[in-house]
């Protein structure tokens, strides 16, 4: 039997990452899917994290049910509290893999994944698993960043170095940080049809947005597991990562600071 490819979630689930992900909404992250949702639909949200998008999707399909799955069981407690705090009852959360969804064949109407395929060693296999559980005519909806489109101003070579370090580490961890541009290729390879590809941008230019974005990445790049992995792979070291973190804060403090990038989106149908 062929062994599974190596992959690990580069960001991990420390509180700073979970809190940032919990600010995401269905309206922003799944805008390309929402017009196709109807009451009574069944959805699987793959890699749901703290559940803020999942809970939002549940409101659009009530009384239908949304199942959020994540391979990190500890983050699902956050997701359950999020749903309970908002009195959303038509959502549940289970620990599971994107490669083995805990639902029967042809039993759901939508499989959704936000910023997930970029971390998978075999995204096409995960999409084929989505095909297994979808009813005929069901939707797959995926959205991922494209790190190769990231741009910042004013220019700082340490932020260029940040991108080099992160992308090198992500690829060594089994992922593909330029996933956004590859979504159409992967969804096609998985056998879906009637594909619609779109793109949206994330922009951090007002003081609060760039401060939060800079704090997120400054914190990420100095997390113990990130430093240890960078040093293990001989990609970077503690000293350089600390300098990169400081550069993020310096960038955010400038009134003309700008950071933007493209998210790829693909909506497909099961034939």
Explain this structure to me?
The protein is α/β, with parallel strands linked by helices and 271 residues long. The chain has one domain (15-269): Vaccinia Virus protein VP39 (Rossmann fold). It has 10 helices and 8 strands. The chain has helices spanning 15-21, 26-29, 52-61, 73-85, 123-133, 157-172, 183-189, 207-220, 224-232, 238-252; strands spanning 43-46, 66-70, 91-95, 108-114, 134-145, 151-153, 193-204, 258-269. Strands 1, 2, 3, 4, 5, 6, 7 and 8 form an 8-stranded mixed beta sheet that branches. Strand 4, helix 5 (123-133) and strand 5 (134-145) form a beta-alpha-beta unit. Helix 6 (157-172) crosses helix 10 (238-252). The longest helix is centred in the middle third of the chain and has 16 residues, at 157-172. It is globular, with a radius of gyration of 19 Å.
Instruction: Write the CATH architecture name.
Output: 3-Layer(aba) Sandwich
The total number of structural domains is 1
Which parts are unreliable, with pLDDT below 50 for 5 consecutive residues or more?
none
Coarse shape: globular
Q: Can you give the helix content as a percent range?
A: 25-40%
Short description:
This protein has helices at residues 15-21, 26-29, 52-61, 73-85, 123-133, 157-172, 183-189, 207-220, 224-232, 238-252, and strands at residues 43-46, 66-70, 91-95, 108-114, 134-145, 151-153, 193-204, 258-269. With 271 residues, it is an alpha/beta fold. The two termini are 30 Å apart.
